[in-house]
Amino acid sequence: MNAREIILEVAHLFGGYEEQEVLKDISMSVCRGEILVIVGRSGCGKSTLMRYLLGLSKPWSGAVHFEGEDIWGESMDVLRRSRARWGVLFQSGALLGSLTLLENITLVLNEFTNLSLKEMELVALRKLETVGLADFARSYPLEVSGGMQKRAGLARAMALDPEVLFFDEPSAGLDPVTSSELDHLIRSINRTMGTTMVIVTHELASILAIADRVIMLDGESRGIIAEGTVRQLQVESSDRRVTAFFGRESLNASGVTSDVNGSE
Amino acid sequence: MSFDDKVRSTSAGLAFCGFLKAPDVSLIRSAFADISLRAKQHVVMDFTEYDGMDTVAASGIYEGIRNLERAKIDVYMNGLLPRDQELLASFRRHEQSLSAPRRSWSLKDHFEGVGDDVVASWETARGLWVFSKNTFSALVRVLTTPSLFRWHLTFYYMEHAGVRAVPIVGTLCWLIGTVLGFQAGYQLKSFAAEMFMPDLIAYSITWEIGPLLAAILVAGRSSSAFAAEIGTMKVRQEIDALEVMGFNIFEYLVTPKMCALFLVMPALVLMADFFGLLGGLLIGGWYLDMPASYYLSRLNFVMLPIDFWWGMLKGLVFAVIIANVGCYMGMRVRGGAAEVGRATTAAVVTAIFLVIMADALISLIFMEIRPTVQV
Fold first, then answer.
1. Cβ of A80 and B246 within 8 Å?
2. Between A and B, how many residue pairs show a Cβ–Cβ distance under 8 A?
3. Averaged over A8-24, what is the pLDDT?
4. CA distance A93 to chain B (A)
5. The most confident of A57-71, A220-234, B320-334, by mean pLDDT
6. What is the pLDDT of residues B73-102, one digit of tens each?
7. How far apart (Å, rounded) are the C-alpha atoms in residues A160 and B104?
């Protein structure tokens, strides 16, 4: 994994809200084409880290590099150029409520391409089809279910065929079945299009289903306490906080339990 | 004496049976009230036949026991389940923390509160200033790069903030013109000076009331609407989404609103002037028997074109204030839906406050530059 090209890198990042430090000396990297999952318990700073990765907030100190360039460098140009190659799915889907699902996607295309309206709609419909929502193109976000909003958000995030997709709690508020469908979709997009993905979540089922590599944050130490594949974290880690996080699942999922037993 | 099958009076105290639940609390209370009248030095609570109690019933029993203890009566428990012993012990613990002195009011806190408010107001003013500068630079970009101008959004807001405000602005200005004409006529009549009523209407409506009333109504309708719209988008992370999709928030969300108000406010002011003057005309005819031809020729005599232009210029300044304040308050929303409500209120209050401040300032300048009309 280490031999692969690093696309996004965080170096010695400190940050937080007002006086309260949430993240302390975070250094991590994302390799091209992998699915990196950032996990941790509620309030450990996952979403804050995501905001820094996306350039929505400026860190107190430290840097975020996209393809070697500091996104908070001299001018805002790097950030602007980087964002054109990113897609983001927010927790709620964050679709514009006043536009239909189709219009939500054509809005992005209209802003960044020279396509005609018909071409934009064709692209948008294709994207909606990818997430199984072609029949709902003319619906407004509030007319479809939460899971559908998420999928439409994903379609919009993919509108410009981004190189990196960011997900903030993709399974939040979804039932287990819908959530696993979304996981499946994420996995298949990664496989077919080679999109790099950075996912923030605390859903164990999702982590087990999609993660190539996991980074675990901890609220108390405000830093990364573990990093590696799911298997490494589950089986090899001796950190109490890591085993506590993954322990619950190894009791539930019989496959994993036998795996652990087998390795012992 | 038996209160129910669940609580019985015994010679030594009370005996409980079955499982004590929330609806039994009143029984428990009256049983304890009864025993406190009869008891001498000690009572025995017999729990040997009971099956347990829920938290609400336990609180009733605890309070009863405490009342007996306060009356210097020793209470002995017999057969209380360990789980419920723990429950009553926890009440005893929590009662101590309840009786701990609460934070008392002090003069220092009061001054600190005032200080915090001042700092917060200062922060708001500074934030608004920075926001306005950003809006202005976005506006310059949009106006110099026509492809960035969002016509459909501008038209949308022109309709909602402007066209739809026409009935209420017209009606209210007409009413104010009428009332003003009536009151001026009533006062002037006693000096036999009612022929000057048109002068008074003309100046008060075009200099102050027309622009101000239009601005206050637009602030009430649109400033709050802008704050609510942007605030809701903020709560739903739509703003973050737009930002990471590469949209410039100011160009996409703020400038169309600003341009729309910029285009409709002068027109609304002109219309407010017209309806206000019309109100004066009608009341003059009805109350003062003033011919419409006299009223109009008097207006023509005392008014200068600058009276209208200046009012419309005020309208432009008010448009900037209202759009900026509305959008800024929306953008400041953090957290949940309740914040959106606060933001809309703050938007209206701040917008009207600043509109009146600006009005006072502009009126002072106007008094300096307006040529005098010899009456």
1. yes
2. 44
3. 87
4. 8
5. B320-334
6. 888 988 889 899 998 888 888 888 777 766
7. 60
User: Which part of chain B is CATH 3.30.750.24?
Assistant: 7-99
Which is it for the CA torsion B298, B299, B304, B307, positive or negative? positive
Contact B245 A83 (CB under 8 A): yes
- How many CB atoms are located within 10 Å of the residue B264 CB? 25
State the Cα–Cα distance between residues A170 and A147, nearest whole angstrom.
9
Check if the beta carbon of residue A15 is closer than 8 Å to that of residue A60.
yes
Query: What mean pLDDT do residues A24-44 have?
Result: 88
Q: Is A105 helix (H, G, I), strand (E, B) or coil?
A: helix
Which tokens is B192 given? 């036999």
SS3 A17: strand
Strands A69-70 and B7-9: unpaired
Torsion sign, CA atoms B27, B33, B38, B41: positive
Residue A226 to residue A222: CA distance in whole angstroms: 12
Residue B99 phi/psi, 5-degree rounding, is -80, -10
Minimal-distance CA residue of chain A relative to B241: A94
Give A172→chain B minimum CA distance, Å: 14
Q: How far apart are CA A250 and CA A259, in angstroms?
A: 9
Task: Tell how strand A213-218 and strand B13-20 pair up.
Answer: unpaired
Could you say which of A56, A92, A112 has the minimum Cβ distance to residue B244? A56
B123 reaches A (C-beta below 8 A):
no
Inter-chain residue contact A95 with B238, CB threshold 8 Å: yes
Question: In sequence order, which residues have a C-beta less than 8 Å from that of residue A146 and are 6 or more positions away?
Answer: A93, A173, A174
Q: Which of A188, A190, A182 is nearest to A164 (CA)?
A: A190
CA distance B238 to chain A (A): 5
Whether A94 sits inside 8 A of B247 (CB atoms) is: no
DSSP state at residue A40: -
Q: Tokens at residue B320, please?
A: 């900037």
Which homologous superfamily is B7-99 in? STAS domain (3.30.750.24)
- Band of residue A253 on the pLDDT scale cut at 50, 70, 90: very low
Q: Residue A101 corresponds to which tokens in the numbers above?
A: 């699902």
Enumerate the H helices of chain B as residue ranges: 25-38, 55-70, 82-99, 107-144, 151-157, 166-189, 197-203, 210-218, 224-235, 238-244, 249, 255-287, 292-302, 305-331, 337-369
Please identify which residue in the block is written with the tokens 């070697």. A68
ipTM, 2 dp = 0.75
Distance CA B74, CA B53 (A): 22
- Tell me what pLDDT residue A3 has: 55
B111: left (phi over 0), alpha (psi -120 to 50) or beta: alpha
Is the distance from CB of B197 to CB of B188 less than 8 angstroms?
yes
Q: From residue B359, give the alpha-carbon distance in Å to each of B88, B173, B179, B351, B371.
A: 67, 17, 22, 12, 19
For β-strands A6-17 and A61-66, DSSP reports them as antiparallel
CB-facing half-sphere around the CA of A135: CA atoms within 13 A:
3
pLDDT above 50 for A254: no
**A8, β-bridge pairs:** A30, A66
The tokens of A22 are what? 């949430």
A92-101 pLDDT tens trace: 788 888 889 9
